[in-house]
Design a protein that fits this description.
This protein is 37% helix and 21% strand. With 355 residues, the protein is of the alpha/beta class.
Amino acid sequence: MHGIAIIDAVQHQPRPARSLSRPRNEKDIPVTVGSTAGSTLGSQAVDRVMAEFEADSWAASLTPRLVQFAAVARHEHVTRAAQWLGVPQSTLSRAMVRLEADLGVALFARRGRTVALTPAGRTFLRAVERALTEVERAAETVRADADPAAGKIAFGFLHTLGPETVPGLIRAFRVDHPRARFQLVQGYGEAMIERMRTGDLDLCLTSPVPDAPDLVARRLDEQRLRLVVPDDHRLAGRKRIRLAEAATELFVTLEPGYGLRRITDALCAEAGFKPKIAFEGEEAETLRGLVAAGFGVALLPPPAVPRPGVAELTVTAPRAVREIGVAWLDGHPDTAPVAAFKRFLLSRRGQLLPS
């Protein structure tokens, strides 16, 4: 790590209370609520609304620093967070000290050049991220209302779908929706589903197809898995294999929690054995490289580009496939671009993957 990320302790005196000034032309401003035409807030109601946003309120005091706090929390380094935000490191350090002083709790634990969240900091970060997500969603909604064709689509997908499938889908979708903007997130299934639940993602491509009461999920395609072995392996000359024939082999797999790991464990169990694990990783192509290096064998989807050093065998029994589906949060309101992209993906049922 480079740079020094030290937050100097300073004393901060809270600002004196002051009231939010009322607009001079208040009587001329109709404030409508709900959908009833002509309904207006009376003077008492205006007072209540204004009182919620007094200049010395927590919301008024904290709001400018929430993005700064989230950046420091995510980077765990003040200097890097300051660079990301485009502000001086000293300015960000002072802002975080003032934030802790205002709240009366330590949000960060200093660890040399880095910072880590305290339990109070983790609690605060969860609430801050929810609030920032709501603001982002509101901004996207009003922007989409003004220009529906240019809205943002927060789209998650599996690492293994990144090289070919997702770029091809986006390219095809943009033929009819050239101004749609994508926020792309690669990850594994469980993590993406959690990000949908927190509002970070609109939808995701995942495997296996999830089954949860708060989700809508649709199967789109299936992909055959292959047993990948080193090219000098005893099985390398084979074209097809029953998975049970690999029962004595060492396997390299994805970590627990990944969909492909659950599928691997289930297929091996169906073949009558529990795989002996030599390595657990996070990327399918890393596993393929380790197979080439002789670390073990692996059940993997086909690569985007053939890799030297391995042989890829068709598994005849059990039927080795993974289902790929699209999922989104049930009841979540869609902007026009998100709804259009959902329809587009559903129209590709059975034709999602490159041939």
